[in-house]
Amino acid sequence: MSEQVLLKNIDNPSAHRIETYEASGGYQGLRTVLRNFAPDEVIEEVKSANLRGRGGAGFPTGLKWSFVPKDSPLPRYLCCNADEGEPGTFKDRILMERDPHQLIEGMIIAAYAIGCRTAYLYIRGEYGLSIEHCQQAIDEAHALGYLGPNILDSEHSLEIHIHKGAGAYICGEETALLESIEGRRGQPKLKPPFPAVAGLYECPTVVNNVETLACLPHLFSRGGEWFASIGPDHSPGPKLFCISGQVKRPGVYELPMGRTLGEMLEDYGGGALTGQFKAGIPGGVSAPMFPRSEFDIKMDFASLAEAGSMLGSAGIIGLDETASIPQVARRVTEFFNHESCGKCTPCREGLTWAAKILRRIEAGRGQRGDVEQLEMLCGGIFGKSFCALGDGAAWALGAALKHFRHEFDALIIPQSKAG
Amino acid sequence: MSDTRSLDEIKSDLAERVEQIMTRYPTARSAIMPSLDLAQQEYGSVDELTYRAIAELLDVPEIWVFEVASFYSLYDRSKMGRHHIRLCTNLPCMLRGAEALMQHLQQRLEVEPGETTSDGSFTLSAVECLGACEVAPVLMAHAQYHGDLTVEKLDALLATFAAQPAEEMS
Ligand SMILES: Cc1cc2nc3c(=O)[nH]c(=O)nc-3n(C[C@H](O)[C@H](O)[C@H](O)COP(=O)(O)O)c2cc1C
Ligand code: SF4
Ligand code: FES
C-alpha cells in the first residue's frame, strides 16, 4: 500500500478533534506558510507542485488563484465546494466527517494566498455529520487562534461560515453554487466573467473542492517538491478514489494517480460481485464508461481525457456481467433529467425525451429507430448545453450506446415501424 | 406545525436566530436558505406563512423566499409523514438491489414513491445519490443514513420507526 496522506488518521475515532489533528502534525503547514511565504509565494508553490483541482475538471489550482486581481478594492471570497452530488462519489464526505481539520487548515492557507477574509463552506444538506464535524472544527480552530482576527499573530484574518445546501445537484457547478450562497435558485451563469474576477456578490472569488483544499496542509508541511514527486508528472499528489457498484470491497482508497481502471476495480475494489466485470465508469456517472477490453486505461487526468472520458470526481463504478447497460443508461439519464435546472432547452427537453425512449427500450418496447434517435439527441445536447451537466449526460449516454449497442438493439421490437 | 402559529408568533419564534444568521452574510437575501432550514427544523415543513415571516424578518420580497423554497428538494412544502424515508435509487445503489428494496417498501407501506401513508406515519421518497455509495444500498431517515440495506434490515427499521414517535428519532 502506498503512503496514506489524506487518509492517515481515517480509522482513528477521534481524528476529527483538534488535539488529535495537531498531535499528528496538523496546522504545521499553516505555520510554515505564515512564517515563510508571502501570498504570491504560496501561489507559486502551489503552481510548481502542480496541484490540480479534485472537483471534476482538474484545473490547476495555483493558476486559478493567480486570476484573482491583485489591485481590486473589492473583498475576495473563497468558497469550498462540498456539494458532492456526483453519483458514485463520497470522498469529500469521508474527509469532512472523519478528519475535517485538513480542510479547515487548507481553507485558511488558500484564503491567505488570495487575500480573503470571509470564506464559505458549501456542504450539501444531507451531510448532517459533515456539517456537525466541520462546525466543530471551525469552533476549535477559533479557540486556538487558527481562525478569527490576526491568525497566529499574523496579519491574516479569516472567518469561515458553513452554508448548507438543500438538495440540488446543479449547485455543485461553481456559478450555480455562488448563486445559491447569494440566496437564489441554483442556476449556472454565463462565463466569462469567471468567478475569479466577478463571483460571489460580484467580487473576486475562488471555488475549490474539499479534497483540493485538504491537500494544502500536506503540500506546505512537506513541500511542493514532495507533492510533485507522487504519481505521474502531469497529475501529481495524493488522490482519493471512490469505488462502488458491483464490486466486493466498495470504499474510498488513497492512491497516486496513474493506476489502471482494471487494477482499481480488481485489486482495490476486490473484483466483480458476480462473475466478471462488463464495464467500468471512471469518474462519476458523468464520465463515459469503458468496456472491460479497455480496462488498461490509466486513471489520471490526461490519460482519461485522451481516451474520451474524464477522471471527474474519481468515483469508480464497477458493472459486472449481471448489469444491463440499457437499464444503467436509463437510470443515469433519469438522474440528469431530474437534476436539470431547466435553464436551457437542449438539456431540459433533450433529456426528458431521451429518458422516455430509454424507459421504453428497457421495458422491451423499443421501436426501430429508437437507438438512432438517442444518438441524434446526444449530438443535439453535447456541446449545445449551457453548462456541463447537459454535456455530461449526453457524453455518458453516448459511450453506453457506442460500446454496448447490441444490448440496446436486442430490446428493439424487430417488426416495429421506424420511429 | 406552523399552521397552528400566527404570522407574528412565527416571526417571534425565529427572529433572534434569523438575526444571527444575517451576520454571516453581506446581504439579507443570502440568509433565505438558512432561514428556511431553521423554520423547517422548527415546524417540520415550510408554507406560505413561513415564507411571509422570513420575508418580513429579512426585509426581502416574499417571492424571493418562495423561489428558493420551491427550487430545492430538501424543503418540504407540504406536511410529511412522521417518518420520511428517502431511499437512494441512483446507479451504485441500483446495482446493489435498490429497486427491489423500493418495491418492498411500496408493498409494506402501500404507497408509491412521493406519497404518504393514509395514517400520516410514513412518507416514501426515491432520491438521488446520497453520497454514501460505499454502503449501498442506502436510505436516509431522520437525518441519519442507514446503509448495506437488505429486506430484513428494512423491516427491522420500519418496526423501530413505527414503535417510536418521530421526535425521539432525530
Ligand atoms: C453539474 C456539475 C456538478 C458539479 N458538482 C461538483 C461537486 O459536487 N463538487 C465539486 O467540487 N465540484 C463540482 N463540479 C465542478 C465545479 O464546477 C468546479 O469546477 C470545482 O468545484 C472547482 O474546484 P477544483 O478546482 O478544486 O476542482 C461540478 C460541475 C458541474 C458542471
Ligand atoms: S445544461 Fe442543464 S443544468 Fe446546465 S444550465 Fe442547461 S438546463 Fe441547466
Ligand atoms: S448511489 Fe446511493 S448513495 Fe450513491
Automatic annotation (TrEMBL), chain A:
Organism superkingdom: Bacteria
Cofactor list: [4Fe-4S] cluster; FMN
EC identifiers of the protein: 7.1.1.-
Record keyword Iron present: yes
Catalytic activity as recorded in UniProt: a quinone + NADH + 5 H(+)(in) = a quinol + NAD(+) + 4 H(+)(out)
Keyword Transmembrane: no
Coiled coil regions, renumbered to chain: none
Gene Ontology molecular-function annotations: oxidoreductase activity
Annotated keywords: 4Fe-4S, Flavoprotein, FMN, Iron, Iron-sulfur, Metal-binding, NAD, Oxidoreductase, Quinone, Translocase
Domain NADH-ubiquinone oxidoreductase 51kDa subunit iron-sulphur binding: from-to ranges: 326-371
Family membership: Belongs to the complex I 51 kDa subunit family.
Function statement: NDH-1 shuttles electrons from NADH, via FMN and iron-sulfur (Fe-S) centers, to quinones in the respiratory chain.
Record-given protein name: NADH-quinone oxidoreductase subunit F
Species in which this protein is naturally found: Parasedimentitalea denitrificans
